[in-house]
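Note to self: keep these together.
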Amino acid sequence: MGMCSPNGVSQAVGCLHLSITQSLASARASGNRFAALILAKDARSLFVTPYNPIPGGIALLKRTLLLILLATVVLGGPKPSCAQQNQQEKEQILWQKLAATVNEEDRRLDGVLAVAILDLSTGQKYLLHADEVMPTASSIKIAILAELYRQAQQGKLKLNDVYTLQSTDIVGGSGIAGVLTPGMTRLTLRDVAALMISVSDNSATNVVIDRVRMENVNALLDSLGLTHTRLQRKMMDLKAASEGRENIATPREMMLLLESLYRGKVLNKQMTEDFFNLLSVHKESYIPRNLPEDLKVANKPGELEGVRNDSGIVFTGKRPYVISVMTAYLRRERDGGDAIIKISDAAYQMFDRLSRASEYGRVISPHDTGNP
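Structure:
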């Protein structure tokens, strides 16, 4: 609405008339016949009735102010400025280019590709085959870690509780745990979890599963409405896998799990911070492969025959985002990993620019050497 600065009561009525007239124009333009009818009637009342400082006049002013408030509510409040609208339009062009990159990878990949990307600042999403149920491989360890932290928060266990590694704990794909001395090696539960995340140690993962219980991991997922994400077997349980008990998820649900953790819907602030610090420990993975080394990336990849996955949060300045890329039926596993790397790189290039750009699109760096 236009500016109006009344110096007296009569001018105040004039300003109210101007405000109603402008609201009336907005109501008509938006097609809101109900608001337009009420405002038109009140505008006529003000126009034909001179202001008289008596109780009836005061009542008219009060009624007019209420009608202006009604108009603001009905018409959806103040509209975005031209600069904001222009910024949003330009951002949509970047999202379209990101979608084109993902679609090209989908076209080229000899296998199934599914993607979910979420802007944690605006809530905008990009989804491709995001509801396809896929094998998670080790990416399911994000949910296992979340349940471990939830039970620590509830007082059911302590992250500094000490566990003595047993020979019966050792399974294939054990990494570091496989070379430790059973019966002698003592680790805190947080240390065991760190092995599960940093080197994807399967023996350490099974220790954590035994401690928190598989059904509790799935109960956590159920409480978040993630009904297609399931922990159905321990690591390297080939018999369970051959019987169809696979650990599964969809990219959308992996995205929603990470978003829920980020927004504090699962853990308190202190636990959430420690959770993401542990999840962001350096590891061999796809999402951060081509990203800056000092960038915080909290993720967990997964690999099986014909399967390559990675899901996580990239903490890109003012525009952190969730990315989950899952592949299956791969003819060549390396191609699946390369697709994740390229999609991750394209997403980062977009969010990094959005994080550092003005509303007009000028990207500002700490050491900007461009011409003014």
